[in-house]
Design brief:
The protein has 135 residues and is of the alpha+beta class. It contains five helices and four strands; from the N terminus they run H-H-E-E-H-H-H-E-E. The protein has a domain of 82 residues: DNA polymerase, domain 1 (Orthogonal Bundle), CATH 1.10.150.320.
Length: 135
């Protein structure tokens, strides 16, 4: 009985560590951190280009392509009409979406550089001046 309980505990722990990979066999997880920049034209981008968007996988990218073949998107927000793309995904990707012009989206590995200050200028480091020695 104790061995069965321990085996069950190990299996449950392994599933917790692996997350959705254990729950959904056959799915590959993209564990490489990446940052994206540029825009993607949702009316002309390939499925591979759409997959660069955060939260958009192979299935969603294919669904976007199939949806737009019926009628092009007139506004970026219309992407939520595609099955598998909801408001949460739209919030993640809306800054990268366009319906006109070329796709310029690129993904790079690693963490994003720190964000610049709102005015674009570097903030001055504020170090207190050392007090002069009084002898």
């Amino acid at each position: 009985m104790f061995r069965k309980t321990m085996k069950l505990a190990v299996v449950v722990a392994a599933m917790a560590v692996c997350g959705s990979a254990a729950a959904a066999p056959g799915k590959k997880l993209n564990l490489i951190p990446r940052e994206v920049s540029g825009v993607v034209n949702i009316n002309t981008a390939s499925a591979k280009e759409l997959e660069l968007l955060p939260g958009v996988g192979k299935h969603s990218a294919g669904a976007i392509v199939a949806y737009r073949e019926k009628a092009p998107f007139k506004a970026a927000h219309e992407i939520v009409k595609v099955k598998g793309v909801g408001e949460a995904t739209f919030k993640k990707i809306k800054t990268y979406l366009t319906i006109a012009g070329p796709t310029t989206l690129v993904a790079t590995k690693g963490k994003a550089p720190s964000a610049p200050s709102p005015d674009g200028a570097a903030k001055a480091k504020l170090d207190p001046q050392p007090a002069s020695k009084i002898n």
